Amino acid sequence: MLGIVGLFASLVFVAAYGRTHLVLGATPPTTWLGLLLVPANGWRGICSVTAWAGMLTLAGCWFGVARLALVGRVGLRPAAAIAGGWAIPFVVGPPLTSLDIYNFATQGRQLLSGISPYTAPPDQLPAGAMLAAVDPRWRHVLSPYGPIGLRFEWLAALFGRGDATATIIWLRVLAVVCTVAAVVLAVRLSRPHRRALTVVLLALNPLLLTTALSAGHLEAPMLALLLGAVLAERTRHPSLSIALALAAGLVKAPALLAVVFLVIEHARDPGQHLSRAKTLLRDGAVLAVVGLAGTLSVPHGWGWTSTVLHTPATGRALWTPSTVLAELAAPVLSLAGVDLSFDRVLTITRLIGLAAVAVLTAVQLRRRMKWEQRLGGCLVALAALGFVLYPWYLLWGVPLLVVGARRRTAFGLAVASAAFTAAYLWPEPQETMAAARALLQALHLAGAVWSLAVLVSVAGGALALARYAYRHGVGPSTPDLWPDDTRGFGQSPCQGEFGSEGAEGGNRTGQKLPPVGGDLLPKHATSSWKGDACACITSGTSGGERNRQS
């Protein structure tokens, strides 16, 4: 049941979120079968709230499945089936939650044209559908990604033959392949009794669904290479593990931390046939070959070393710890008489965060526990304490902890990452207000329609009642004692008391009074009631006689 509800929530999110994913000045190359058509403000707000409700429902279903998997009540095959079902809307739907994939496509087009993204920003390309889709804030920024990451983008542009839409599709395809490979490697690295839990905590996690599958971030190939390095190290292939770790770092720089951990691990345990010096020499040779090959694969291959810190520093997010610390410290320093701009305070807090990560890494390098678990903790700390925190940055270390940490720890980290992903997709305030106004207008319209329906119903009922009364001669105040159809009725009860003259007295007006049958009277009527009725008729007759005499 949770799997079906989660699939429905995925469909709702994908169908609604694309209609809110609007950045001024950015136009996607395709509407993706209408899923990227942004409606008017009111409906956009409603779509935004609906998408977030779908994400909350998906996260709730995932939490329920994760709780069942934590106690061993979900098998590997059911978990894989649910993961496949939930992933389909994100794979088929448009790129969501980020516009970075359009920047990737532009950089691949630059490489295809012989332009290095390390020396020329995307706005150096001629105007077209591909450049129009890039967020205007990043059109003048040089690429911070490694040379293997750029070669990944070049491959998608090559398959797409330079077309914007085709390049985006190929980037998504490659991201899906890398994500599936990462999940398979994570399952392979897990113990047999924990493999179902690994699938649930990683493959079903909204973090992976929205950032790797849907948005197509480069964390997907980086994670696949990093987990491949962990598997190679476990299977006693040290050279391959070093090569894969460096390749992951040449996709995105944070993975280079894995190289440091592996070199130290190899120096601690060089093996039976190699000394420590020979082990270090072997690792150095592997690093040199792989690093040189990756650098020569793109023009100006070392250019990313100058942009890897500068480009991320241009982004800001209010929930980043370093930004929060700067927001709190700036007014305090101003009251203390320290004249520093907010940008300088932010730079100081960011350096403090990096220093804290460096200290944590130094401490973890000296410990003797599993190296992939220690590496995962350092990468999560780097994502949280770095320049800016986005949900996809958590993919640096959370999968490693899901594989290597204790069950409860892995479960807690996965829940935290899913909660942060849902919070990141919170509707913007103006969208929420627009949705509230549209909902209020809809309620007013529904109230007006309901009032009109009630009035029409009342009027129709009154008309029907009037027609019934007219057709059957029913008076509004007294019962009909003198019906038109007198067939089958007997004589009036007054005839026995007044004789024929009493009956004829009412006939002097020229009207023939029909006899009233006794059957018309109630069965419980008494003689006094009959007498009163006849007295009324006699009184009416005498009155008519006096009027005629006068």
Could you please describe the fold and organization of this structure?
With 550 residues, this protein is mostly helical. Helix content is 66%, strand content 0%. Helix 18 runs antiparallel to helix 19 (398-404) and helix 19 (398-404) packs antiparallel against helix 20 (407-424). Mean pLDDT is 82; it is low at 476-550.
Instruction: Please report which band the strand proportion falls in: under 5%, 5-15%, 15-25%, 25-35%, 35-45% or over 45%.
Output: under 5%
Estimated radius of gyration? 41 Å
Shape verdict: globular
Count of alpha and pi helical runs: 23
Our count of domains comes out at 3
The main sheet comes to: none
How many E-type strands? 0
Spans of at least 5 consecutive residues with low confidence? 476-550
Mean pLDDT: 82
Question: What is the end-to-end distance?
Answer: 94 Å
What is the H/E order? HHHHHHHHHHHHHHHHHHHHHHH
Structural class: mainly alpha
Helix content class: 55-70%
Search tags:
550 residues; disordered C terminus
